[in-house]
């Protein structure tokens, strides 16, 4: 596997352990185990040829859609939330929307590669349904931020695949209509979204709702450039998941956040280099995976810095929780798979 990506994954894992345990010391062993499982997942997927990944991507997508439907009937919510986003499986809870992110990446990459020879004749209805159904079902779970992220991720992948502008706009508009059609009966459950936007522009509008961003801002200001050191309690809610970067900042200061930015930047650059090594389905899979990981990292860091409303999107390969770690590991596996295939053909040493 590519060593640069491996080093980046190790560094992100270490920062994740620091951030998670700085908030909840009792989660140290659990977080380490999750990271080890993630590395094993990446290694396994890297041995699957890109063409095989492309062939199974429609089944993977259908599987994720099936789970998104199942969660509507038997899904559970976490304490303090009303959204049904998790399927209980013994001691583990599966979040289908996280799998849907990488499933959409895989299916669209496979679809546009298979239709590369007749770009002007692409059937609009397929990518339209792929994006619209996935986003719509996630919206029904009242997970607005993830639904929008999946939608924008799909649009970016289509742009990378070479979709002309008018066709891209057409697919996006129709997919949006499908998603809204699915969402329509659930609009009364989305008051919290407008509340978050209102609080973002006016924290005094709802003191309780603005508590997390206010405390996060205060923690960042107190940590400054050098940080307060590991072991100082983090009072920010969800400082081991959504706000893990704040936990890292409090522990080691601005250097921790700059390290995260640099590592994700290296992953993006190296991932795109690997995507360009070998033409084929692995190229689009790699580019889509890079877009997914980088996009989610940017979104999370902007929210943590108080530059965007609270979304609930976690930091890839850093935040606590096995669901997003599993999804991101699959995406990183796509990149490593393309690297391994290129190396077998002597395209890279």
Shape: globular
Number of helices: 13
Mean pLDDT equals: 83
Order of helices and strands: HHHEEHHHHHHHHHH
Into which percentage range does the β-strand content fall?
under 5%
Question: What is the CA–CA distance across the termini?
Answer: 11 Å
The poorly predicted ranges are none
Into how many domains do the coordinates divide?
1
Helix content: 55-70%
Structural class by sheet pairing and helices:
mainly alpha
Tally of extended strands?
A: 2
Biggest sheet, open or closed, and with what strands and sense?
Answer: 2 strands, antiparallel
Radius of gyration: 20 Å
- How do the strands line up in the largest sheet? 1-2
Question: Would you spell out the secondary-structure blueprint of this structure?
Answer:
Blueprint: H1 3-23, H2 28-46, H3 50-74, E1 87-89, E2 92-94, H4 96-114, H5 125-140, H6 144-160, H7 165-183, H8 191-201, H9 211-223, H10 244-252, H11 254-275, H12 281-304, H13 322-344
Helix pairs in contact: 1-2, 1-10, 1-11, 2-13, 3-4, 3-5, 3-12, 4-5, 4-6, 4-12, 4-13, 5-6, 5-7, 6-7, 6-12, 9-10, 10-11, 11-12, 12-13
What does this structure look like?
The structure is a single chain. With 349 residues, the protein is mainly α. It has one domain. It is built from 13 helices and 2 strands. The chain has a two-stranded antiparallel ribbon. The chain is globular, with a radius of gyration of 20 Å. The termini are close together.
